Amino acid sequence: MNDWQQRVVALAGMALSAAAVQQLARSGQVLHDTVTETLLNSTLNLTPDSTLAVYGSIDEVRPGLRTLIQQMGSSRQKDLELTRYMVGMIHLSRRLLANDDAMNTLGQRLEQVSRQYHEFGFERYRILESLAGIYREVISPLGQPIKVNGNPVHLKIESNQHHIRALLLAGVRSAVLWQQVGGKRRHFLLSRKRMLETAQQLVKLS
After folding, report:
1. pTM of the model
2. How far is CA 120 from the centre of its chain?
3. pLDDT digit string (tens) for 152-182?
4. Could you tell me the residue range of the domain that residue 67 belongs to?
5. Could you tell me the CATH number of the domain that includes residue 26?
6. Domain total for the chain?
């Protein structure tokens, strides 16, 4: 993959996270259960061979690519809430990258959860709870918290709260990856067309 393709894949990971947060907050469930698995794996894949390997394959990020295309295309298709979530993820990731202590703590705690997940087979709800704790204790204090809107009936359920925070952590992970492969905020203004065309090309790959 070239640089632009890698950046767009990472953005698609962010879009996937943002859409999953929105779905869970509004309906109490993520539309496709495989999305949670993709994002869970992306958070706990600490030594990926490539940007795409973070998520598995194009198939795993295709829903995120479609969301990204909608967000970057016609203004009538844009969802301002999803944009706000993604902007929040980028903001927190920038704060994270500038804080060595937070980065070290995050790495240590993710290694611990990764072992629980991959080596000891902890149940998913326990992994989500652990990731939610990492988001709450390591990521949230770094900057303006991401305010999640939705149905209060679903938002007050503790397991949904854990799930949402774990999804937000995955989004921040993708935002960090986006910057590591050269993503810049100015690209949204100066290279929007190129990013959109790249996403449109990637979504067609099999």
Report:
1. 0.95
2. 25
3. 999 999 999 999 999 999 999 999 999 999 9
4. 3-203
5. 1.10.3890.10
6. 1
